[in-house]
Amino acid sequence: MKFKLALCQMKGHIEKAAAHEAAKSYIREAAGNGARVISLPEIWNCPYSNKYFRAYAENDAGESVQLMSALAKENGVWLIGGSIPEIDDDKVYNTCYVFSPQGERIGKHRKIHLFDIDVKGSVRFMESETLSAGGQKTVADTEFGKIGIAICYDVRFPELFASMVRDGARLIVLPAAFTVPTGAAHWDLLMRARALDNQIYFAACSPARDPNAPYQAYGHSCIATPWGDFCGKTDANESIVYGDIDLDYLEAIRTQIPLRDQRRPDIYRADAQTP
Hints:
Layout: E1 2-9, H1 16-32, E2 37-39, H2 50-56, H3 63-75, E3 78-80, E4 84-88, E5 91-99, E6 105-110, E7 116-119, E8 123-126, E9 138-142, E10 145-149, H4 158-166, E11 169-175, H5 180-198, E12 201-205, E13 222-224, E14 230-233, E15 239-246, H6 247-256, H7 259-262, H8 265-268
Parallel strand pairs: 1-2, 2-3, 10-11, 11-12
Antiparallel strand pairs: 1-15, 3-5, 4-5, 5-6, 7-8, 9-10, 12-13, 13-14
Helix pairs in contact: 1-3
């Protein structure tokens, strides 16, 4: 089985209405070019800044959620809705909604690991000053099999992805807005490693870089194969990245190097006994 995946690397907008118009344009273009699964980037309807998250936050019936549902149905695609600020019981989450081609919501992932870092002389960002952390992993059922969803900083915790793969995920989509310094150092390495370790397709969808925005995203949206190379990649500018997801190729890789059959969970467990 093979299908086309598209990652919409679009800039953020200070006006939510402008972000909505951009999302419409990108999704329609990607669908028109044959993409069956389409992803938006992290925090696409809001400037990426703690000062904006609560002000722009929506609940499950919000206008951005409704728009994504309508666009999935209009274009007949499986839509990974990047992420938006979600408000629930006065808490704000960084949340990815997933929709079927009928516009039905089939998944919702709240970012589990919050981006609290302080790289000396480079970048400091504390998402926990505004956002709350999610409490569960997300694997959505689609006509192409199971697709795992994670958000940005989640990628640095490999146990999460190994667990998704044990649940049957063969593609994982990661809306992600890395900083320029951490992206230059770690982006390619992390995306290829998650794909290679788990013998899956791993797709990371970033916002485009905007010199006028409060947060400078690294960009470089990409799709890594089960062999650990890239089948789609871009730079920091606005663009759509396309890649063919070939599940037969994935199974061939798993047959040739049978990592799943060779794992030793009896040794990896924290309570494993040392002889």
